[in-house]
Amino acid sequence: MTELLLAAATALWLGILTSISPCPLATNVAAVSYIGRRLGNPRRVLWTGLLYALGRTLAYLVLGMLLVAGALSVPGTSHTLQKYMNKVLGPVLILAGMFLLELLSLSGGGGPALSERMQRRFADWGVWGAGLLGLLFALSFCPLSAVLFFGSLVPLAIRHESVLLLPALYGAGTGLPVVVFAVLIALGAKRVGEAYNKIVPFERWARRVTGGVFILVGIYYSLAYIFGVL
Length: 230
Fold this sequence. Notes:
Largest sheet: none
Helix content: over 70%
Order of helices and strands: HHHHHHHHH
Strand content: under 5%
Number of helices: 9
Radius of gyration: 19 Å
Number of strands: 0
Distance between the termini: 23 Å
C-alpha cells in the first residue's frame, strides 16, 4: 500500500511538473487567456479553465490507459514485467533524470502554435472549445513532456499494473496549474504575470530536484536488481 501511495504521489507530481514546464505552461496560459478575453465573463473564464484542464486530463488518461492496458494484455507480460521491470526501470529513471537536468536533450521545437484562425474557431465554440483545445494541446508533446509521460509515467504505471489510477492522477496533475491560472485570469491579468514570474524559477528548481531524485533512485534500482550488490 505504501509503495502504491508513493507511486500515486509521483504520478501526480509528474503531471504538475509537465504542466509548469516552459513549453506547456506558455501554451496553457496563452490558450486560456485568449478564450477568457473573448468570453469576457469571470465565471465563464473559470469554466473555460476547468474544461481546458479536463480536456488535458482526459487525453492523458485515455492515452495512458491504452499504452498500459496494451502492454499488460500481451500474453505472459505480467510474469515478464515482474521479472524484468525493476531491471528496466533503473536505466529508464537515470535517463529521464538526465533529461530533466538537461544533461541530455531531444531536438524539437516548442508546443503547437495557436493560429488566428484556430483561435477564432475555438473561441466561437465557447467553453466547450476550451476542452477540445486542452485535448489537442495535451497530445502535442514537447520533448520534456514526452520524457515525463513516456519515459517516467508509463513505465511506473506498467510496473504497478495501474491502468486507471496513475494515468488519471498524471492527467489531473497537468490540469491543476491550468485551473489556478484560470482563477487568476478571472481576477485580473496582472496576477497572471506575477504568478508566471514566480512559477518559472520554481519550475527550474523543481525539475532539477526531480531529476536528481530520479537518478538516485535509478542508480539504486540498477545496483539492486541488475548488479545485485544491495
